[in-house]
Write a sequence for this structure.
């Protein structure tokens, strides 16, 4: 063999039988091959084999199976971002003429997908409040309604939907339930009969703010129904990203519990401050969603919002005065982040819709990180003293 | 500035903080804002909406295609999907090349048709049949040249002229030739689509896609789709693709000259009944290939005597050529569509897209050409 050929067909560093890496390697290879055509056509190859990384990849597959198990389901499809996962769950279950129910108390990009894109594809929507069960029941009963997209708790206002009630209404009318479960995490809500769970893996799953990813989790039958679309859409998660997320998952529980404990401590402190009008955090005993959240979740997550007794200018000054909380969107990573809610997460809503979603120009969202909680509290304290009087 | 200079330097400026000559891999998902009212003053907020490493690749590819701007995606299919999404709505119609890649065909017939978009698959080797397929509600012409796997060509300039008369975009899948050999936007097309998985990466190490457009207006639409649907390229993939692109011209030149030599060898072999390679004098559209591209690429197909059985025997006998369906990488890959990629496709449909029983597709790699010819010769001898 000439050297020009050798470099593209390098000698194999063969592992002796039983000598295996402890951690699954990053399979960067785009293609997977078989020694013969017959082998490539075998049942094993067809059912669990790997061919092309856009379709499936061993590194990504391990992540899919882990995430599915955490969410109490048996299959999943990982994609390049949380929004790609939302998009996959929507397109996989809809066609022109269908109608979707969404809620004013939801994540802005989720609303944008439904309000700006779906009508272009002939799919209508109706936007309700997640607490308005009467309106939800009425819309579900309309035979055009095929799917509901919701969050628990909602981003950014931490409203807690009654999962049992919504699932039961949806089942009565054969409406597909798609729950963006990013805030609650992979380990919560699995016992409810949700059809499709969607997560932004960018957040708690990876947890280090260094990789984007998304996943749709469901039972095998439902995943089988949307997998061809995922392959055709090509919204593939990069195996390098899958590796980082799988690594992140190893510290998932310790991180999620610490995020939640620190968020609760901060929420309790803020609730006592005279500069604060209201705190939105389901972990607070005084929160209207508390008893429902306690029934549904094991912890309450690392995100909370609050209204300052302040003007918009004072609110922005408060955010700018924070030193440990970085001003930016995203959440669920080791660093604490802060966002002006109206500007970053509510600007697509009309004044009336903002009111329904409880978003004000003095609303602030905190994504509590893993810094020492005393340092975070001291930072909030100095910024409040400096800017809100 | 020459292409190979641009392929090394375009889009990449040394990192202002460290002086690193390569763009760093910005893994960060989120970007700090200096203050609330200076939101987005540095151009980045969240990696789904824009990432500096991905942006460097987008700028490089825009320069190489001589376009206004570029957006990158998780795969070539995601790029194509984004073009559909940016240009088509319920009630619209699109004309697509009848020899388009199977993924394109499925995207149209299995997904977009569910959302009220209609499609006509027209013979893109004949501009008149593209013109005849137009309707009042046609909003996009999508072609692929050379087509996969038939290598049928479409006249980019002629089809672009038709699109221009109707003020609708003409998108060309330029994956097979890359901007090194063919630049659709210079020939009048509005959108050039790529699977960067192929020649841009070139090493079989990433999947990715790109859309290069000729106007800021189109780019704005693409960027909206990229952000809203989140079918984004990861920064690490962008970085590998940036590095791969720096050797694009040397790789594809050698791969193409290997392909030319192999095509000539196969044409003279008694067990081969037909060879199709745009660089062969015998190629039916050889003149068009020479007119619109500066090279012929590294994809070819040939027909072996003895149909399915002979094709399969050849597959199982090759040693250097790897049985796998990707293309454009340093490894030579060989496929027998009838038993592999198109095994599930109805015979009539296979015939329509030009896939015969003995057809073998070759993506010629960077190995020594004598080794490749020797491998094919020994395998052909076994038939």
């Amino acid at each position: 063999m000439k050297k020009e050929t050798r470099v593209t067909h390098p000698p194999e560093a063969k592992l002796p039988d039983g000598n295996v890496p402890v951690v699954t390697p990053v399979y960067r290879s785009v293609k997977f091959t078989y020694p013969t055509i017959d082998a490539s056509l075998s049942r094993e190859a067809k059912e669990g084999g790997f061919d092309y990384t856009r379709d499936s990849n061993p590194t990504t597959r391990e992540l899919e199976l882990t995430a599915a198990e955490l969410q109490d389901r048996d299959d999943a499809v990982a994609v390049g971002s949380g929004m790609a996962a939302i998009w996959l769950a929507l397109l996989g279950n809809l066609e022109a003429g269908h109608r979707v129910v969404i809620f004013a108390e939801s994540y802005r990009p989720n609303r944008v997908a439904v309000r700006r894109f779906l009508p272009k594809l002939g799919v209508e929507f109706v936007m309700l409040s997640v607490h308005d069960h009467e309106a939800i029941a009425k819309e579900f009963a309309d035979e055009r309604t095929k799917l509901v997209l919701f969050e628990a708790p909602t981003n950014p206002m931490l409203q807690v939907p009654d999962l049992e009630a919504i699932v039961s209404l949806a089942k009565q009318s054969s409406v597909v339930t798609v729950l963006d479960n990013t805030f609650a995490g992979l380990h919560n809500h699995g016992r409810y009969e949700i059809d499709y769970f969607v997560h932004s893996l960018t957040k708690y799953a990876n947890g280090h703010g260094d990789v984007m990813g998304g996943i749709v989790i469901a039972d095998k039958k439902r995943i089988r129904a949307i997998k061809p679309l995922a392959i055709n859409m090509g919204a593939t998660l990069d195996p390098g990203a899958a590796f980082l997320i799988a690594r992140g998952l190893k510290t998932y529980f310790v991180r999620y519990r610490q995020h939640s404990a620190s968020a609760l401590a901060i929420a309790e402190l803020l609730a006592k401050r005279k500069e604060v009008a209201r705190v939105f955090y389901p972990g607070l005993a005084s929160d209207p969603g508390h008893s429902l959240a306690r029934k549904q979740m094991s912890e309450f997550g690392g995100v909370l919002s609050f209204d300052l007794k302040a003007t918009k200018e004072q609110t922005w000054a408060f955010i700018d005065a924070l030193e440990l909380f970085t001003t930016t969107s995203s959440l669920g990573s080791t660093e604490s982040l802060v966002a002006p809610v109206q500007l970053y997460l509510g600007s697509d809503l009309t004044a009336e819709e903002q009111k329904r979603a409880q978003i004000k120009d003095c609303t602030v969202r905190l994504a509590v990180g893993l810094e020492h909680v005393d340092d975070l509290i001291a930072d909030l304290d100095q910024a409040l003293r400096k800017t809100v009087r | 500035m020459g292409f190979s200079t641009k392929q090394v330097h375009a889009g990449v400026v040394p990192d202002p903080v460290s002086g690193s000559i390569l763009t760093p891999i910005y893994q960060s998902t989120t970007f700090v804002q200096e203050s609330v009212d200076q939101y987005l003053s540095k151009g980045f907020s969240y990696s789904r909406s824009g990432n500096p490493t991905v942006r460097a690749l987008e700028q490089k590819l825009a320069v190489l295609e001589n376009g206004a701007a570029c957006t990158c995606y998780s795969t070539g299919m995601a790029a194509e999907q984004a073009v559909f999404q940016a240009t088509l709505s319920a009630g619209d119609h699109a004309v697509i090349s009848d020899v388009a890649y199977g993924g394109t065909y499925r995207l149209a017939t299995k997904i977009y048709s569910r959302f009220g978009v209609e499609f006509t698959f027209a013979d893109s080797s004949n501009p008149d049949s593209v013109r005849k397929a137009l309707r009042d509600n046609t909003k996009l012409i999508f072609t692929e040249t050379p087509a996969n796997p038939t290598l049928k060509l479409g006249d980019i300039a002629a089809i672009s002229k038709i699109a221009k008369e109707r003020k609708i975009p003409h998108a060309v899948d330029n994956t097979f030739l890359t901007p090194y050999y063919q630049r659709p936007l210079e020939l009048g097309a509005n959108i050039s689509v790529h699977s960067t998985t192929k020649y841009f990466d070139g090493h079989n190490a990433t999947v990715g896609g790109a859309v290069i457009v000729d106007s800021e207006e189109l780019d704005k639409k693409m960027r909206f789709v990229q952000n809203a649907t989140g079918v984004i390229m990861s920064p690490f993939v962008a970085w590998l693709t940036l590095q791969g692109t720096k050797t694009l011209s040397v790789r594809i030149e050698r791969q193409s000259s290997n392909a030319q030599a192999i095509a000539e060898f196969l044409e003279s072999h008694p067990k081969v009944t037909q060879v199709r390679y745009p660089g062969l004098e015998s190629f039916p559209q050889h003149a068009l290939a020479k007119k619109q591209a500066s090279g012929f690429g590294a994809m070819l197909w040939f027909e072996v005597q003895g149909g399915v059985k002979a094709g399969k025997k050849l597959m199982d006998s090759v040693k250097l050529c790897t049985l796998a369906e990707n293309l454009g990488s340093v490894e030579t890959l060989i496929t027998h569509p009838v038993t592999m990629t198109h095994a599930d496709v109805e015979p009539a449909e296979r015939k329509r897209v030009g896939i015969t029983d003995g057809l073998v597709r070759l993506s010629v790699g960077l190995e020594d050409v004598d080794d490749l010819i020797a491998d094919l010769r020994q395998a052909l001898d076994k038939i």
Q: What stands out?
A: The two ends of chain B are 50 Å apart (CA to CA). The first strand of chain B starts at residue 69 and ends at 73. Chain B touches chain A through 80 residues (CB under 8 Å).
